[in-house]
Design goal:
Layout (H helix, E strand, L loop, with lengths): L6 E5 L3 H14 L8 E6 L15 H8 L4 H7 L3 E3 L1 E5 L9 E5 L12 H6 L6 H5 L2 H6 L19 E3 L2 H16 L2 E4 L2 E6 L5 E6 L3 E4 L2 E4 L6 H6 L4 E3 L8 E8 L11 E6 L2 E7 L3 E8 L6 H12 L9 E4 L3 E3 L3 E2 L2 E3 L5 E2 L6 H15 L8 H28 L7 H6 L7 H10 L18 H10 L16 H21 L3 H10 L6
Parallel strand pairs: 1-2, 1-11, 2-7, 4-14, 11-20
Antiparallel strand pairs: 3-6, 4-5, 8-9, 9-10, 12-18, 13-16, 13-17, 14-15, 15-16, 18-21, 19-20
Helix pairs in contact: 1-7, 1-10, 10-11
The chain binds flavin-adenine dinucleotide (FAD).
Flavin-adenine dinucleotide (FAD) binds next to α1, β2, β13 and α10.
């Protein structure tokens, strides 16, 4: 039957559920009675996962598209600015070993590729410092903008660190009050099928059946609709990405004036790594590791050593991680978004960006009747299988260039048997030239070629010298770009406030609305 889409039912009220419901509602103006109705069903007894504090710059656009004021978001979600990631101890494991993956593209990129020139001049500066002004901003603890910069605009590209629990609640309030999403607080306890095998309704404990034409599974790791009901298989990626456990906690700042770091700090440990995320009112810290290579006790000790004396009074949450994703994400009239679709370790904050991308594709290509749903589903599945594959490659890249030998974890990570063929091919190409947009011709990229450059050259990878001269033709243009970058470093580091100063001003005055 060619039924029209009148109601979209989102099951799950974590970040994935509310972002998806909000995106569809904003796009289809569901608060007008004639339009598509968006219903979100959320269990009162199963809380959202409550971790996931690092985002991508895409979040600015997502919030703006929902009609959210940046000042409200920053104040209510205790958000702060994130300007990329600093990877410590990933290459040699020594104290002075670090590199940056900033969010500003290399100067002149992609028109002018500075990587070969940087390598040729055997510059003493790190790659990211030589080609981008953001590393200096981060090292000086500065914000990516000023109080006079309008909301969502930037001096340096930025994302956010946010309080995940507050964020779901904030989105819920906005989606219900401003975007007309109907919120049902109830447990889904059953599923009714239509004659042709679609989901006709979900059965709730207190509110009976909730009918719809499209169902969005945002039920977190339980993957109630896509995984449990439709039995879509899980593609296990743990042979490539070994992390299987997280220990997460929250740490207070030492004082009211303690600096708020404006990038995620990822510190490699003997069998994993520690994230350290500065929010406006506290830090979120966690250790992810592989139990195949270390014991939980040692992992706890490593986290305790990192945090210091404050550790003994903290609540530590243990979260098992199963690296992988569903074989397909959209089956019949059900599509999974968020943890129900899959999860990979949070090394590059790729989960929420996939939620945003899924939500925007569903909103923009929402099948208005059943006849076209399978076509949209096919496109969605192709797009997201591609994206998950690229994310696996990009995360693995961080491990294969490490020279650490202190634990078999690092040695096994470099074993070609554990490296996807697609990544091995790229590494072979990049022996002879630097990564460029030509390597990622798809419209569906999550990480641009510049991100690969930052990680490769940050970790000491070198293009074969013999082949370097092919890429050194326009030296004049390259010299100009290096000069512009130096000039930008001088300019912005004099002009920008510290991250804490800016956040305090936002609490006091707010940002200019656009
Ligand atoms: C250790 C760790 C660190 C992470 N760090 C990052 C990061 O830095 N950046 C990033 O982008 N992502 C990160 N993530 C991922 C991020 O937390 C999630 O992608 C995000 O929170 C979305 O979760 P969700 O909404 O899919 O699931 P959840 O938050 O688990 O929400 C599930 C929802 O489903 C509902 N539900 C379940 N069963 C039923 C039922 N039977 N009936 C009705 N409702 C039901 C629950 O009530 C809940 O509302 C991290 C994840 C982990 C585990």
């Amino acid at each position: 039957m060619n039924t029209r889409t009148k109601s979209v039912v989102v099951v799950g009220g974590g970040t994935a559920g509310w972002i998806t419901a909000g995106r569809i509602a904003a796009h289809h103006q569901s608060n007008s009675e004639t339009k598509i109705q968006i219903i979100l069903v959320e269990s009162p007894g199963i809380p959202p996962i409550g971790v996931g504090e690092g985002t991508w710059p895409t979040m600015r656009n997502t919030l703006r598209s929902l009609g959210i004021k940046e000042t409200d978001f920053i104040r209510e979600c205790h958000a702060s600015f994130k300007q990329g990631a600093k990877f410590s101890r990933w290459v040699t494991g020594e104290n002075d070993d670090f590199y940056y993956h900033p969010l500003v593209l290399p100067q002149g990129f992609p028109k002018c590729d500075l990587a070969p020139f940087w390598q040729n001049e055997s510059n003493s500066k790190s790659f990211s410092e030589a080609v981008c002004f953001q590393e200096d901003i981060c090292e000086s603890g500065l914000a990516p903008k000023m109080i006079t910069t309008p909301e969502y605009a930037s001096v340096a590209n930025y994302a956010y660190h946010l309080d995940s629990g507050k964020f779901s609640a904030f989105l819920q309030n906005h989606c219900v009050k401003k975007l007309g999403v109907r919120h049902i607080l109830d447990d889904v306890v059953g599923i009714n099928a239509t004659a042709d095998g679609d989901i006709g309704s979900v059965v709730t404990k207190q509110n009976g059946e909730v009918r719809g034409e499209l169902f969005i599974d945002c039920t977190g790791f339980s993957s109630l609709l896509l995984g449990e009901y439709f039995e879509v298989p899980f593609v296990d990626c743990s042979d490539v990405l070994f992390i299987d456990t997280a220990l997460a906690t929250q740490v207070s700042y030492e004082g009211e004036d303690s600096p708020i770091v404006s990038h995620t700090v990822s510190t490699a440990t003997e069998a994993g790594w520690i994230w350290d995320i500065g929010l406006s009112h506290r830090r979120g810290i966690g250790h992810v590791f592989s139990t195949k290579y270390t014991s939980e006790e040692r992992a706890e000790q490593t986290l305790s050593d990192y945090i210091g004396p404050a550790y003994k009074n903290l609540n530590i949450r243990k979260i098992p991680i199963k690296s992988g994703h569903r074989k397909q994400f959209w089956k019949k009239n059900c599509v999974a978004v968020g943890l129900s679709a899959g999860f990979l370790e949070p090394l590059e904050a790729s989960a929420l960006v996939l939620v945003e991308m899924s939500a925007s594709m569903i909103a923009e290509q929402l099948p208005l009747c059943r006849e076209v749903m399978d076509i949209t589903a096919k496109r969605f599945n192709e797009t997201f299988l591609y994206r998950w594959g690229r994310i696996v490659d990009f995360l693995k890249l961080h491990y294969i260039l490490s020279r650490r030998t202190d634990n078999q974890f690092w040695i096994d990570n470099r074993d070609p048997e554990t490296i996807p063929e697609s990544l091995q091919e790229l590494m072979k190409l990049w022996k002879y030239r630097s990564p460029g947009d030509v390597d990622f011709a798809s419209n569906y990229e999550v990480f641009p070629a510049a991100s690969y450059q930052y990680v490769l050259y940050g970790m000491g990878f070198k293009t074969d010298r013999e082949f370097l001269h092919h890429a050194l033709s326009n030296k004049k243009l390259a010299d100009e770009q290096f000069k512009i970058n130096k000039h930008n470093i001088d300019k912005v580091t004099k002009m920008l406030p510290t991250n804490r100063e800016l956040l305090s001003k936002i609490y006091q005055y707010g940002l200019q609305a656009i």
